[in-house]
Amino acid sequence: MRPFHNRLATRVLLPILGFTLVFGAVVIAAVLFTTSHFTREQTENNLRWRSDAVRQIADDHEDELQRAGLTEDASARRDHKVHALISIDDFARSNGLRIIVVDEATQHAREFGELAVSLPAADDGGLERIRQFEADGSTYYAYTFAFKPWRWQLTLIQDGRAYETLEQGLLRGAWIAGGTLTAAAALFMLYLSAITRKPIAAIIRDLRAGQPPGYEGIVEFEFLSTSISEMMTTVREKTAALARYREHLEQLVDERTAELTSANEAMQASHQELLDSHRELAETHQQLLHAEKLASIGQLAAGVAHEINNPIAFVNSNLSTMDGYVKGLLSLIDTYERQESLLRGHPAAIQEIEAVKQAVELDYVKGDVAALLSESMHGLERVKKIVQALKEFSHVGDTDWQHADVHRGLDSTLNVVWNELKYKAEVRKEYGSLPKIECLPSELNQVFMNLLVNAGHAIAKNGVITLRTGCEENGVWIEIADTGSGIDSEHLQRIFDPFFTTKPVGQGTGLGLSLSYGIVQKHHGSIEVASDPGQGTTFRIHLPIEQPRQTEPA
Amino acid sequence: MHHGSFTRRRVLGAFCAATAAAAIPCVAAQAAAPPLRIGLSLGLSGVYATDAEMQGKAYRLWTDQVNRRGGILGRRVEMIIRDDKSDAATARLIYEDYVLHDGADLLMGPYSSSITAAVAPIADRHGYPMLSPGGAAEALWKQGYRNLFGIIPIAGRHTIGFLAVLADAGVDTLAVVQADDIFSVDVSEGTQTWAAEYGVRITSCQKIPLGSSDLEPVARAAQQSGAQALLMAGHFAESVNMRRALQRISWTPAAYYASVGPGLDKYGSILGSAAEGTFATTTWEPREDLKLPGTVEFLREFVAAYGEKPNFLAAHAYAACQVLERALLQAGRIDRSLLRDSLAQLDTNALLGRYTVDRTGLQTKRFPLIVQWQHGRREIVWPEALRTALPIVRK
């Protein structure tokens, strides 16, 4: 159900009805105003006119006296006055007036007419002007004039009733006219609405059915129907053409989209390549920096080892010599002690010797000096091993590819980082039999050192680090496993990313595994990791025995 | 010639035949049309019997005359006069019967102002325009009736001429006695209103019941009020009774005026010489020298019909019929609404003089006559223009 105000009849009717009502109200108001104004004006005019008529009555009688030469005849004058008063009485009655005639000489007042009203006490009796006053809810008008020949003062009082009928009639007429006009407008519009509803309904019915309207009848609506029908045909043709254009356009758009997608993918690929290149460049740069640093450290370590090597050599030589000397001295001392009995006669000498013995704790020294020398020799041996390890770790000057023993590299690296591991982990070696592989030993050692240091960091205490090696097809594998804290699965994919670290600030740079990854790739190998959080981590490195030979450019 | 003569005869014969043929349907139509029934009541018995009798004769006279003329608008006139016994209630019943039971096509007013006042509302309510040949009290036209039209000068002015006579004679005191009907009251009040204009002082004003026979007390009181003249406002009986009361108390006022009664010949025949000097108001006098239109014809035909002279009351009735006839002819057809408008607008001269009414239907243009019994007859003593004798006032 459509809203009432959306109906055609309502839209047509209401404005007209509204206009009619407003117009009617304005007309009625205008009629009221005009009638009121007219009434007042006419009443005043009538009162003046009637006053003139009354004056004329008296004048006529006075003229009659004059013409008859009876102006001095008291009887005739009296009779004429009476007749004038009778006429005034008739006039007052006929005209619905109140007429008050006052004889100025005697102040005798006569009142005529049926209008039951008197002048208000406040009336000033002003001559020749209209006064208006209210009495008993009605409005009255008074006019006073003097008839000097008879010294009469005549006051006419009139009400507005003469025009009340007119006023009421006009108002009634305005209402009737307004009502008739409104009713006529309503009927006319209802009729108009009725005759327009059928063709419009027919057109709407066809339109709702989706077909061109085919109304025939009233010329204007038929023209409208035909126009809509033609317009619908045109629209359908245009719509079909648009549909065709749209399909073509969609095809063109698909093609262009495919081209753009392809271009975009190519661009993304290029972009990815650029990113990869950039990353590789950054990694290479870091590796170069690190290699340079390692080279410097290696040179320094090799230098230090070389310088330490000579003192160690002569200390070792001296200690070996001193061991022979001590053994001789101890043999001498033993000889002297066995000969002390010879000094029994020399108590002072014996006493002095005993004092010296006690002072130097000769017995203890004899027992401990051999041990000291042995430990010193042993320590010196360890120093020699460390120096040797440093030399081997650094491989100063070994910047070319060479065939090296992986186990030796592992061991030397283990020696270098031993100090990091010895208090928290036990190192177990489960070496297999490996051939020498073509490699850069110092860089591989760096890989081993990174993995071993990380294993040490992962173990809080009393852990186990297991080094395993083995052969595989065309290669070897090296496995470094720990029983540390392990790596969270969410971090496992990112551990080879540069600068990724879970270590506290200052303890790790995030470059160790990234560099190790690069070094292994450089050796055309691979590195795998398996970790179980809380159980430990295992890194396995696969390396070819021989590096692939690059084809020389033609 | 012969041929021409023959032709003329034939033409004349044909004309006569056509005229006769045209006349026959008229006569037939008048005969066939229902009579125009005019209903009224009169106090043919009761207190107004004397007054009303003459009016009934006048109505019948006019009816005969108008029917001899072919009726009005082709309809014969039938005047229905019923006796209201001088009683207002009876009159009301009669007039209700006329209007409610289709007893009359038109109405004519009854006699006396009181009875007219009783039936006027009925006529007005049912839209019957009604002339008032028997009512002159001004109060009748203060009720707002649209259908009541006066014939007689209003009662309030009946004594103006008498006051003028008094003033001219130098009589300046007057006692008033009034009956308690509206006509008499109007006469009394009018006298008091206009007396001042003539320098006449009202020494007393007494009211008596209508039809009172013993008026000695009021006559004595009037005399004792110091009045030189006496005015009796009433009807025939009061005028005679007061005259007799004056005789009994031996008071002969300078002038004695009575309304209605002295206007009738019966006043003189009853009182004889005692009627002498009495003043009264009439509107018409049965004198051929009266300068009012149709007076002679009416007088002669009335005498011929009834063997006696008509009085002013008969003239009232006859004048009313004249006015009614002219108003119907002016209206053009028998239609009460049209008749009402016609009566309101009509301005014509009838037996009593000019007929024209104001917007209330009140007769204003007609003036009354003051008559005085002198030498066994009534003489017109006022107005001067119609005077047949000088007024006699004893001082």
Supply the number of structural domains of chain B. Answer: 2
Largest sheet of chain B: 7 strands, mixed
Report the order of strands and helices of chain B: HEHEHEHEEHEHEHEHEHEHHHEEEE
CATH class of the domain at 4-183 in chain A: Alpha Beta
Oligomer classification: heterodimer
Could you report the average pLDDT of chain A, rounded to the nearest whole number?
A: 84
Fraction in beta strands of chain A = 5-15%
Fraction in helix of chain A? 55-70%
Count every beta strand of chain B, where a strand is a DSSP E run of 2 or more residues. 14
Radius of gyration from the alpha-carbon trace of chain B, in angstroms: 24 Å
CATH fold-type name of the domain at 4-183 in chain A = Beta-Lactamase
First-residue to last-residue Cα separation of chain B? 88 Å
Strand order of the largest sheet of chain A: 2-1-5-4-3
Structural class of chain A: alpha+beta
Most residues in contact, chain pair and counts: A-B, 14 and 16 residues
Poorly predicted runs of 5 or more residues of chain B: 1-30
- Order of neighbouring strands in the sheet with most strands of chain B: 7-6-8-9-10-13-14
Q: What is the helical fraction of chain B, as a range of percent?
A: 40-55%
